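Side project, low priority. Logging it here so it doesn't get lost.
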Amino acid sequence: MSAARRLITGRKNPHVLEQYSPGTLPYYAALKALTPEELSQEWQEITLEQYWYLMECVPPIHVKSRAFMVGECLTHTDRGAIYEAVCQVDERYFARPALLQSFKPNTYAEEIRRKFQL
């Protein structure tokens, strides 16, 4: 089980499965079914401890400003590889699955501010 997957399954509200799957659709199949727009709404708040765990578990594939992508791929789709994106906004920490080619920390911060009304 990947480090990012362990983090997701430990969340209070595991994203993807409950929200998008009325049945038993496996986690990775659910991820593959999400559009980039749906993925952008999947931000979940995480702790500082989880943030640093994800930063240190494997070397990040992308790092910029206060955002990074965990270096271990979650799954592949016809649109590209999906990684766990992690972002700090103010003194709070957030994570969501994201397409590798969509790594845009400024956009991430805007998405988080909208969703969490920061």
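Brief comment: The longest helix spans residues 105-116.
Revisit when time allows.
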